[in-house]
Automatic annotation (TrEMBL):
The gene is glnA3. Gene3D superfamilies: Glutamine synthetase, N-terminal domain, Glutamine synthetase/guanido kinase, catalytic domain. Residues 119-449 form the GS catalytic domain. InterPro entries: Gln_synt_N_sf, Gln_synth/guanido_kin_cat_dom, Gln_synth_cat_dom. This is Glutamine synthetase GlnA. One of its GO terms (molecular function) is glutamine synthetase activity. It comes from the Bacteria. Keywords: Ligase.
Amino acid sequence: MARASDATGTSAADDLARDLRANGVRLIAGSLTDPAGVTRAKYVPVSRLGAFERSGMGVSPSWSVFCVDSGIAFTPTIGVTGDHRIRIDRRDVRVIDDGIGWAPGNLNDQAGTPVPLCPRSLLARAEQSAADRGLSARVGAELECTMVALDGGPATTDPWSPYGIRTSLDRSALLVDLAETAETAGLDVEQIHTEYGHDQLEVSLAPTTPVAAADAVILTRIVLGRVAARHGLRISFAPVPFDGAAGNGAHLHLSLADAAGPLFSGGDGPHGIRTAGGSAIAGVVEALPDLLAVYAGSVLSAARLRPGNWAGAAACWGLENREAAVRFVAATAGSPHGANAELKLIDPSANPYLAAAAFLGSALRGIDLGLDLPPEIPENPAQSDVATRPLPSDQRAALDAFEYSSVAAELLGPEVVEALVAVRRYELKTYGELTLADTTRALRLAWSC
Ligand code: GLU
Ligand code: MG
């Protein structure tokens, strides 16, 4: 990262700014995704790229407690004084379209050090602590979302066929535009399809290092929003977009490897899972009740996270089990990236940096503690004889479990816990008594980019 006194960095930023300008870029957005899962941004003219990198752009500390609407959930430690900086790294800049470039931001203090509230730095630390243990981590993301009309209402009323060739070809112009814009933005899209829910789309991204994976989630949301707008639509990332509709998931796949190879294959455990891999899965499953507020903690999350929705509402794991919170994917010829653990219960109201940090952190914690892989649930957990630990059943219970959890404090730090609890309790107070129809109407576009 270039420093203020680093002449090389300064001229490198100026060179890049000139190249971007020649490519039509006029404004650079630096974004920050907050504990409520909402992505916000500041812009600079492209000529000021170097300043965005060296000094950052000022934001109030209240950015960390902005809520899903325009509310602010001030806490005893986050008020109206102080100043933070969004700083970007020129190497992260991607070209979107219409003169806009984008880079993910870190949240720093004025001296240039990431603050404890910075979700992206928190994930970078989790990535580093894996490396400190001799482990490399890869994360792959799936983004489910719902196409909606410009006024926020349903995009279509025609019958929907899940994964239908008709429902996808009806949107061929949008899908081709999506593939093209994603490629220009440097995204590694693996798959696109129309999903089960009415007007629902899914985009799957190739696995990469954890911070890069969370960055790619935000960039994909931006690209989806831009492309949809060109086709007279908007994109909802609400966990439940309409009362009665299928939910939107934000599943993350995690794989880990040490010098001897992958932890989830080549061993003596079930499906080839190595001892450390079993401990990683055990750590993730054990921490689910404490961390549900991170993964699926919004006022709309509990309506999605129910048995029968393939949302992974049961605190267990199982091979290719779509009702288990952790769906294990074994190393087969059909799985080119190898074995991995998919955490299905994450929804798009979650901050992807915090969700990935909690997922990876709880896996590392399981390894550190040498936890034993719990028994596999090979069938629908709702019909299994093996009891699974109950998950908090609603937002209030999830927040209660999270607020005083030592695991949450250990993995995320007390500052993030305080901010996340504040913004989610605000949601509970503001929307908790409304009908699902009214809450989905109010928050349908809250997590859109
Ligand atoms: N839409 C489901 C969810 O809310 C997931 C469906 C699937 O398995 O892809 O997570
Ligand atoms: Mg899906």
